[in-house]
Amino acid sequence: MGTLLAASVAGGGGARPLIGMAAFATGLALPFFLLALFPSYLKRLPRSGGWLARVKVIIGFVVLAASLKYVSSVDQVLQWGFLTRERFWRRGSCCSPCGAVPARFRAARWREAG
Predict the structure, then answer these.
(1) pTM of the full predicted structure?
(2) What was the pLDDT predicted at 66?
(3) Domains of the chain: which residue ranges?
(4) How far apart are alpha carbons 113 and 29 in whole angstroms?
(5) Helix, coil or strand: residue 45
(6) CA distance 14 to 70
(7) CA 67 – CA 83 distance, rounded (Å)
(8) Could you report the per-residue pLDDT of 64-112, keeping only the tens digit for each?
């Protein structure tokens, strides 16, 4: 999306930024449009509950891992030396921040279930 916005501001893209933004908007609006056309499908959607809380936590871990990746890229470009590869991966994935917190979450969930 950022590339499309930059191309539209630069003005040299022609119709490509317009087509790209229309495709992006269509992709975001399509589920809502289809549910408005066929409201009976709303009853088939799953209800929120405990499973949704677990999904939100897991997606939160994915977002945290992605943010660490982007921060480490900035760290490498600016040569701060704060987030080195050895700091995160020296002892294996279960000891790294991207592996230890989700592992503790899974262990807590297993104790609750069993």
Answers:
(1) 0.54
(2) 83
(3) 2-44, 50-113
(4) 38
(5) coil
(6) 31
(7) 12
(8) 878 888 888 888 888 888 877 777 666 445 455 556 667 777 677 666 6
